[in-house]
Amino acid sequence: MIPVTTFAGKNVAVFGLGGSGLASASALLAGGGDVVAFDDDQQSVVRANAAGIPTADLRAIDWSRIAALVLAPGVPLTDPEPHWVMRLAQQADVEVIGDIELFCRERRKLAADSAFVAITGTNGKSTTTALVAHLAATAGIDAQLGGNIGTAILSLLPPRPGRVHVIECSSYQIDLAPTLDPSIGILINLSEDHLDRHGTMAHYAAVKERLVAGVPGAATAIVGVDDEWCRAIADRLDRSGKRVVRISVRRELPDGLYVEDRRIMQAAGGAAAPLAELGGIGSLRGLHNAQNAACAAAAALALGLDPAAIQAGLRSFPGLAHRMEEVGRRGAVLFVNDSKATNTDSAAQALACFDDIFWIAGGKPKTGGIESLRRFFPRIHKAYLIGEAAAEFAATLGASVPHEIAGTVDNALAAAARDAEASTAREPVVLLSPACASFDQYRNFEVRGDAFRALVRKLPGVTAP
User: Fold this and answer.
1) Domain CATH code at residue 386
2) Model pLDDT, residue 88
3) d(CA 116, CA 70)
4) Which of 53, 147, 229, 400 could, after both became Cys, cross-link 168 (CB 3.0–4.6 A)?
């Protein structure tokens, strides 16, 4: 835990008692703050009380005595309309912040020069965050991994010299961190997302920009420049005097890092040299993962790692569960769990990585179906369709792709494993990349992916990949 001493002796309200909210309340209490917490969900309030956190309905407290409201990131600030607790804080002119902001203030107090890598972007945040932490750890650096990736930032060990905090930041968290000042900031990419919260793409991009704009002095801002929003942001950072490292997987750069033929190239002044090879690294297949890897390599360079350490870390990276996760092999057949692919854009990234696919797809369908994936149909030997979307997907596949309606993951896996093993393909891949939500059959995509992994590993003759 990181005790938050910057609010010692002050009254702080905490709203939203999920993982980050409970961690924030506990950290504030440990640092000497006077905390009162609440949540719209009564069960969350009960859990907080059981953890020793004082609670009260924030509609009934004296807001004139409150120094700050610490808000969970999912609570609406403005769109579609402000949450009632936001209105109360605004009426009382009370500062509204989140757990990332608490960390930033405590870091400046404890160890302002300690390394702090903050990562954001529309896609690839979790993989890039995990990869940066892995590169640092394999090079012998004490790397603390957390934020939006799953572990609340205030649950980590405190900042100190020689320790690096590698933190995934969502736009919601950045919104609540007005003094966010990482020593290394990464903005991977930008595309339309969360506009129900941010209203417009311009506002969403402006929120994301704050993470890299906040890097101080000679610190490093790493920006993927393969979309127009990020290119404009990189140019603005340049004009403001920031040290910018540009990243591309689509074109050569005169300065920065770019990917060419599965190789990360480091360019300066128009001259380029290889930094690391991505070929043969199963956990980093695909153009999207090449972008993640190049961003992580740039961060590793800024942390002081040499090319040999970066290459070793890339090769040993296990990847993240449910994201192109290689879960087993049987003979030539590779089994891949990409349950995180809950929409066609995500499924497209997986389908682009393989040539001989036995595809398990379906679940709770999203608008548009799989028509946008038609360009990948020639890669698919056969599809095994599950869940509510099965009939709709079958109609789209038609005569273009052999398919069967399997109904459930276990039926689909059994059929796909049988057919893949009987095929003459060099490396047949049984790929769970559903292009659908899981809620018709599973609580979430993690449970769906866990079920697939467990079923694969029960197949006779399956070994670790």
Assistant:
1) 3.90.190.20
2) 96
3) 21
4) 147
Question: What are the tens digits of pLDDT across the range 390-448?
Answer: 999 999 999 999 999 999 999 999 999 999 999 999 999 999 999 999 999 999 999 99
Task: Name the H helices within 256-408.
Answer: 286-302, 307-316, 344-351, 390-397
Res 150: pLDDT: 85
Strand order across the 11-15 sheet: 34-38, 11-15, 68-71, 95-97
pTM for this prediction: 0.89
pLDDT of residue 123: 85
Q: Two tokens at 137?
A: 């750890």
Q: Give, in order, the Cα–Cα distances in Å from 230 to each of 21, 132, 255.
A: 31, 20, 16
Tokens at 304, concatenated = 């002081």
Please tell me whether residues 162 and 252 are part of one structural domain.
yes
Parent domain of 36: 5-97
In this structure, the answer to whether residues 230 and 343 fall within a common structural domain is no
Looking at residue 197, what is its pLDDT? 57
- The last residue of a domain, from among 68, 97, 126: 97
The helix-helix angle for 125-138 and 286-302 (nearest 10°) equals 40
Return the CA Rg of the chain: 23
| Positions of the chain with pLDDT lower than 50, given as ranges | none
- 362 - beta bridge partners? 386
Integer Cα distance of 106 and 465 in angstroms: 42
Domain presence at residue 463: no
Residue 33 shares a structural domain with residue 118: no
CATH assignment at residue 16 = 3.40.50.720
Q: Output the six-digit token pair for 453.
A: 């992994």
Q: Could you read off the pLDDT of 86-132 as tens digits, one per residue?
A: 999 999 999 999 999 999 999 999 999 999 999 999 888 999 999 99
